[in-house]
UniProtKB/TrEMBL annotation, chains A, B:
One of its GO terms (molecular function) is DNA-binding transcription factor activity. SMART domains: HTH_LACI. This is LacI family transcriptional regulator. Coiled coil: none annotated. Keywords: DNA-binding, Transcription, Transcription regulation. It comes from Streptomyces phyllanthi. It holds the Pfam family Peripla_BP_3.
Length: 337, 337
DNA sequence: AGTCGCCGTCGAAGCGCTTCGACAACCTAT
DNA sequence: ATAGGTTGTCGAAGCGCTTCGACGGCGACT
């Protein structure tokens, strides 16, 4: 391993000078800088991360806590994680991957050991047990998701309330009167992950204003479960003409079942999905959808964190505005009779 | 931040004694050990990661390089990543998430800076540009995937050749004579990621032995693309009765299209997928499949790496035996006429 | 010409830990 | 009783870096 001292010797300067060339924290003459930079090149020097962390008490690492469960749409998680890693690198940070498994202990461990300078938490529950810890350490953090109490926290999330409202508006605008919401798996609601409830709230409130009748059914996804759910929906509300699907793994089963029952999309029933664009465009019917801006969320989370680490940045809740893209799965309500 | 020295003072021993209690590298009397452990508890001590890394030249971090692209089945990647993180923790390691973006530079950076003690590389190409670097550093590494030349490397992967063979055997055993392989996206082949080609090789070789005729078509997934692909297949080989699908995002489109064309699965055509069990059981038809043991691969990769780090462990290629599970998508070939 | 201030560089201290050699204290075998 | 071997603990050195204060040299003022 090449050390700073060796670079210094090779360049004929002192160690501290090399350090200042690297960090830019003091001015260095052009000549010296170039000599040092050449030596670094020639020797293939890479600063030792441990020594750096020890001396500067900054590890240049951001911890990312991803959920262990896989009952939520995994590609979204992955996309966020990759966006976090990529964005972090552009700011000179690396990303430490923590699974939810260790729970609050992981927060203690990482904070206590100085392993990471900051944390990003995904899959935050309404009343998450990691939040008190986060508030009491002075380690910067950003949540992707929205807990019940956001005091002293920075959160980035899609505005799911507005998402729900947007779906209601679109369907109401097309003349629909009875709509069904195919929600996330029951476990997601039991866990109080918030986003599912927020979507539903937004949708219900706006529906009421617009005179829509809403039937909500959680659904685990998969064909068999979806078949049962769908049967119940039409049983209870035979005049349902609009569907809002929140659980991506229920989308394709729903479309297949509707087709099988001779209900054409979008002629007889309209379907809106809340899902990444990729899913919407690759489905068997090109889906009208509200996108989940996974990359954007990851990127924004990192940028807020970096701002905090630089002493800029404040506690703040960032809700990304939802965008509804009309594709081929929604249309005007069929004329009665 | 609580330091070792403070713990030592609190417990009335020297710093080195506390260190030895922590590492277990020298024997410590029961009494002293207990006193130290109590002090650690009471003070809430966490060893500083940077200092540790500097003094011991071990960071207790494993770097995991995941592909940036998302043209491969993402949930598999995610499952591997999570298995890696979880398994690593049980061995006292944390995981650093690197994206493929930086390419070989990331390897240099991580190796050179001592940021990580070892690396796991996913999505390895046949002639991957990171491999020469890996061979010349003495940093332990494990590949998930199989490059062309494995000398001096440790690899963990599903035995895709055997997977292909297994599919051929199953279909041949059911009396099929003409089969089609719906492969990965063309980009995957162009990139020479190996696994797609290996599956095909295994399938072709065994098919020849068994007298099967094979038609291979790369396919990007999605309904429109699949429709075109399928039409061509039946155009070229009207008597095709068996399908092997390697691209998970082509599975559901294929099933839908077959249904739409009035070809019943498994009565008229049989379909085998190479995919995680979860996909196989949640599809519109319960799919006969060869599982991709993502968790197992992640776990094994870490265990090999830890073995190497402990001075045990050797360079070795581990190919996991494929397992075919018969479900409801394959059956005997329909009697002619 | 003398003083002030700035720029560029250096030396040294110290970050919190691991680890090596030293050394009491004790036990066993002669 | 004494030599030799354990066992448990300590002190000190050092890992490679950052950062602070110091200082020589120079140009810009008066």
């Amino acid at each position: 391993m090449v050390t700073l001292a060796e670079v210094a010797q090779h360049a004929g300067v002192s160690a501290s000078t090399v350090s200042y060339v690297l960090s830019g924290k003091r001015s260095i003459s052009a000549g010296t800088r170039q000599r040092v930079e050449r030596s670094i090149q020639e020797l293939g020097y890479h600063p030792n991360a441990g020594a750096r962390a020890l001396a500067s008490s900054r590890s240049n690492i951001i911890a990312l806590m991803v959920p262990l469960r896989t009952d939520m749409y995994v590609p979204v998680m992955m996309e966020i994680a990759i966006a976090v890693a990529t964005t972090a690198r552009t700011h000179g940070y690396d990303v430490l991957l923590l699974t939810g498994e260790e729970g609050p202990d992981a927060v203690r461990r990482v904070t206590g050991s100085g392993l990471a300078d900051a944390m990003i938490l995904m899959d935050v529950e309404l009343d998450d047990e990691r939040l008190p810890l986060l508030r009491q350490t002075n380690q910067p953090s950003v949540l992707i998701g929205l807990p019940a109490d956001t005091t002293g926290l920075t959160c980035v999330d899609l505005d799911f309330t507005a998402t729900g409202a947007l779906c209601a508006e679109h369907l109401a605008g097309l003349g629909h009167r009875d709509i069904a919401v195919i929600g996330e798996a029951p476990a997601v609601y039991e866990r109080h992950t918030g986003f599912a409830e927020r979507t539903l709230d937004g949708l219900r409130v706006r529906s009421q204003e617009l005179g829509l009748r809403v039937l909500h059914r959680p659904c685990e996804g998969g064909y068999d479960v979806m078949a049962v759910t769908l049967a119940r929906v039409f049983d209870e509300r035979p005049r349902t003409t609009g569907f809002v699907v929140q659980n991506e793994s229920a989308v394709e089963p729903l479309l297949a079942l509707l087709r099988q029952q001779g209900r054409a999309v979008p002629e007889d029933v309209s379907v809106i999905a809340v899902c990444p664009d990729q899913v919407a465009t690759q489905a068997s019917v090109r889906l009208t959808s509200v996108a989940i801006p996974a990359q954007e969320m990851g990127r924004r989370a990192v940028e807020h964190l970096v701002a905090k680490l630089d002493g800029r940045g404040t506690d703040e809740v960032v809700l990304l505005a939802p965008e509804l893209t009309v594709r081929a799965s929604t249309g005007p309500v069929p004329s009665a009779g």
